[in-house]
Amino acid sequence: MNEPPLAGPARMRMFWSSRSPFARKAAMVAHECDLFGRLDLIDVPIPGPGPHPELNRATPIAKLPTLVTEGGLVIAGSPVICDYFDTLGQRGLIPRGGPERWRALSRQAMVDGMLDMLLLWRADLRRPDPCQSARQQGIYESRLIATLDRFEDETSAGGGFDIGDLATGILLAYLDFRFPDIDWRTGRGGLRRAYAAFSIRPSAIDTAFAAGA
To answer: Is the dihedral of CA 142, 195, 16, 11 positive or negative?
Structure first.
């Protein structure tokens, strides 16, 4: 269902949280594509005190991020929103063909899967000690280490900056934000250098994670 017209010039609206890595990815892509100034960010508390009526009207699954375009089209899911921004801004963060496209999209998908796992890991850590699963946490840790080692091997080869590189930077930032005891830097010079370059991009600075629950 289309949203009612906005007063004044139409703008894009995106439901997000400054603590959501998926919402940050979409916001960063908008920034990289020179669309950030056309975007109104609607903050949704996570966890929230209850349903968010405006978000629920936009999408029944009430998931972040969700974009409402200037024409009222609702776009759900960070990969689709990022593709929309990149197509609209013609920035080239998502290569349009060749092996580079599949490399970038595959890296983004791997990062998204790892972030989903980190959210589950964090939820388990917040349970009372008797309810936590040390075995499951060990599985999470081994998968994280293997993924970071794979990314280190690929990052060391160098290259440009695409959606996969952007997503990787957000993963590393999220580790610092929510898992500060995990040392992902030791032995991974390629990732350290890539993250240092990522961190000084204006898009990363302007969308940095905000402290909170």
So the answer is: negative
Q: What is the pTM of this model?
A: 0.90
Predicted pLDDT of residue 4: 41
65 burial via Cβ count (<10 Å: 0-12, 13-18, 19+): buried
| Alpha carbon of residue 118 to chain centroid | 12
Question: Is the peptide bond prior to 65 cis by the omega test (within 30 degrees of 0)?
Answer: yes
Q: Are 103 and 164 in contact (CB under 8 A)?
A: yes
CA 43/CA 156 separation, integer angstroms: 36
> Where does 74-97 have alpha helices with state H?
78-89
Beta strands (DSSP E) in the chain are: 12-16, 39-43, 66-68, 74-76
- Flag residues of the chain having pLDDT under 50: 1-8
Q: Torsions phi, psi of 2, nearest 5?
A: -70, 145
